[in-house]
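Lesson 9: reading folded outputs for more than one chain in a single document. The general rule is that every protein is listed as its sequence immediately followed by its structure tokens, and records are never interleaved. Here is the first one.
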Amino acid sequence: MIDAEYAVIGGMLTEPVLVTEIDDLVPEDFTVESFRLIYRVMVDMAVSREVIDIVTVSDRIEKLHNTNIIQLLGQAIKACASTANVKSYAKIVRNESQKRRAQQIATLLLDAIPNDGLDAVDTAIKDLMALTMTRKNNEVSMGQMMKRAVEIIEEADGKKGGVIGVPSGLIDLDRVLGGFHDSDLYVIGARPAIGKTAVLLNFANAAGVAAGVISAEQPAEQMGLRLIAIDGKVCAHKMRNGDLEETDFARVALTVRNLHQKEIYMFDKSGPTIMEVIRQARKWKMQYDIKILFIDYIQRLKWTDLKIARHEQVGNVVMCLKELARDLNIPIVALAQVNRDVEKRTDKRPNIGDLANSSEIEKEADCVMLLYRDEAYNDQTMDKGVIEIDVAKNRHGPTGWKKFIWQERFMRVENYAPDGSY
């Protein structure tokens, strides 16, 4: 184990490009404290594009830490017989580090269970999942920040206006959001019967990646019927009332086969606790590597302490969802109820202040969207078959209302025109 650490440090000194190529190590992976310091210094030097060799690294450490380490560096170089094997040595170092951390987590769990019960188990699961996910060093220098920022710019430029995140399936919305981005929390608010669950399922159906859906209001079979209607353009009312024609049955059969190919996983429980949601999301991430999570809806999720005020419960739930998005590094899209007071106004389009129960939704969400259909309130409207989406808050870009086609019989949302314009 120590030999592998010597070989990794020696290999990186011999072939400095390995410092950036082996990017899933962190200083804490090394058991030798001096190696932790050496590795940290080499990473900083690599980011700054400085020359890395036994002299420059030794000089940097001596100046910053008043430590003469050149003899240890020389021993490390001798310990590395071939730089061709350094990546394999780094894997050994990383695996041994994960084993040590797993043992620490298990020990802490045993000590905490008598007092904390299931909370201790949840903490242990979260920590164990972090071991198997992509390694991330939370301590970031300015050079590393700039490197990551440039990578994002280059990725976006490579797509030339295409969708960077998980697509919504709606051209105009993706132009505003750039798709749903990792670690961001998206909240979609609307009054009942406007179509927010349908919109959520349209997004899940269009995602094209492994997706989890938490259904806290409707059972899975109803969500399944909605997906058939959306994906196959089959009349939802006819399916529920047994009024399908022969051609409809053929379309249903084809749609079911198509939907079987999609990685959409459903958790169906009325009013789950936020901890149940977190556990399920972590399970899906581990088993299926989900890339996005959809939740129907925030106010149906229960907080652990029901004695505190309702707005505090909702606020705590939202903060947990934002933390979950960051922990799993996936976008979370969650529905939310809008207060009924909006219906007392002449213009019944909701605004961000109408979200029910908590201002924390507005504070924690990276993006807030609000839905409106004029025909839900006005039979004589000129906007029949239209659903409006207001991007009321967008931490990363523009805001404003966008119009889309609403096909109620299919519970389907489509672009307003083939090219996304209107």
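And here is the second record, again sequence then tokens.
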Amino acid sequence: MAWNFDAPAGLRDFPNSSDWHDEMVGEADLIIATLVGFVVGKDDPRNVTPQEIATWAPRLAYVHPVREEVPGNAETIAIKAWPGFPRLVDRRAPWTQDFPPINGDANGTLRAVDHLGEEDHAPGHFADRHGNLLQLPVRHRQDEYLEWVAEKDSDGTLTKVTFVAEGYDYFAALFDKAPDRVVELYREFTKVNSITADDLRATDGIFRVLSKGGRRVVANPGKFNPRNRFNINPGIVHLSHRANSLGAEVNLAGVSALARKKVKDVPVDGKDEQELICCNQGGEPNRNSDPKISQQAYSLVQGGFRYTLANPVGLYIASVDEANLTLPDGSPTPREWWNVVRGHDLWSDRDSRVLRLELRPPPGETTKLSELRANGSRLRFPGQIARLLSVHLFVTRWQRAEPGVGPVVPCRGTCCRLSGTELLVGSDGQCDDGFELAFPDLIGGAPVPSPTMLAKAHGTR
């Protein structure tokens, strides 16, 4: 049966559904070329030949479902969910230098996580194609494929919290094909009816000019601006952190699809999720999400499965820890307080594909949101609710026709750990003073100083 990529949660935003299908086909093509490149020793997937793909793609664990047929006995499962509150914010605590202790937030994490800035990019600045400096802060510490915005009354008391798990690259693709639909969604979710397509466009492009030299494209001239101000204030439409993209999910699921070996051909067993992601260099080792996704994908490889990301591909809010959100009298908060705006099946952990979720008092309710208790504490910060949410994705898997795990390749790198902390930084074996190799047997070579490691450990990328 022919495979068709539907939009996340089965949304119908695209006038022509084949437009999103084509986007996802391109993503899958790139992943297969990248994986084959790892196998044949080519760093640039553009240098991988069609013959190499034809030879090696059928042996990979990860499958391009348009290029290979998915068998009828394949099953779709949700991988283990991960916490929505950023692990890195907790690992960098206490934040008391910038956020002195207050009631309900002694170590500053609940205020630090809502801070706006540019830590999601490498040190440098944003500029357009003419060199004009741009200020484009986003929710740069909310990096678990979950972001949120709180609404407050005139006294600064919470009245509603909105959570999203929609990648900005989905909106960029939609903007290319149906800018009016993007404008419509922005107006709906921000309540700013004057927004136009030009307000969301990077007219002169956006580039990250790096402190160490060079620049990276954030948005090409005339294309969608993923860091536009309307997604930050007054509301939230989609994810904003650089790493919170659908493309990152696809890449991580793919990069994790090769069995790995340490020095002396010792297999990587995948039991330590952080060791694994330091080995494959597929994502951020200090996140809850990336190591968990990588580990779950790798377990499929080791189990003799072939797999692909399930249709519709997406990252979804998986569940709510209902037991730890209570009314003032200690009873569970009724489900009517939760409103699924985009997506479906919130209350089924195995099926939930929720993209946009609100917490607010239902119509006619006299209890205020600020009177609820999260984990026993009165609700003051949206991060308290984020700690109760989890995120997941789905894969479709089936057993290999022949026993085995497919190609086995060396680790791509390792990690250094900041002494006395849990903070990890991806490395090629070089460590700054104050760091030590966390996993010294992943790659060969002795550690030597690296000038950028301290900046990375403190959140810059």
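What the second record shows: The CA atoms of residues 77 and 450 lie 41 Å apart.
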